Amino acid sequence: GDDGWRFAGAVSKVGAAGKLIEALRLHGEMNTQQLAIATGLHRTTIPKHIYTLNKAGLLNKNGGRFSLKSL
């Protein structure tokens, strides 16, 4: 079936969010443009990943800039 493709899609989504988390952990507060450069992800996909991380309660928003909440 196409379960393999679905799994690959899920992994790549986690990978992208993981890259954002890693970039924010390393560099601190960043805007979407900086995140795109730091992660190598396309600028237009960043907001979708920001939304996911924000919904999970992992981000602080400060105007157009984002940082990780200290856990």
Quickly count the helices.
3
Average the pLDDT over all residues and give the rounded result. Answer: 85
Structural class: alpha+beta
Tell me the helix content. 55-70%
User: How large, in whole angstroms, is the Cα Rg?
Assistant: 13 Å
Largest sheet: 3 strands, antiparallel
- H-E order: HEHHEE
CA-CA gap between termini: 40 Å
Poorly predicted runs of 5 or more residues: none
SS elements, strand count: 3
Share in β-strands:
5-15%
Shape, per Cα inertia axes: globular
The side-by-side strand order for the widest beta sheet comes to 1-3-2
Brief description of this entry?
By secondary structure, the chain is an alpha+beta fold. The chain has helices at residues 3-27, 32-39, 46-55, and strands at residues 30-31, 59-62, 65-68.
Question: How would you describe the overall organization of this protein?
Answer:
With 71 residues, this protein is of the alpha+beta class. It has helices spanning 3-27, 32-39, 46-55; strands at residues 30-31, 59-62, 65-68. Strands 1-3-2 form a 3-stranded antiparallel beta sheet. A hairpin with a 2-residue loop joins β2 and β3. The longest helix is centred in the N-terminal third of the chain and has 25 residues, at 3-27.
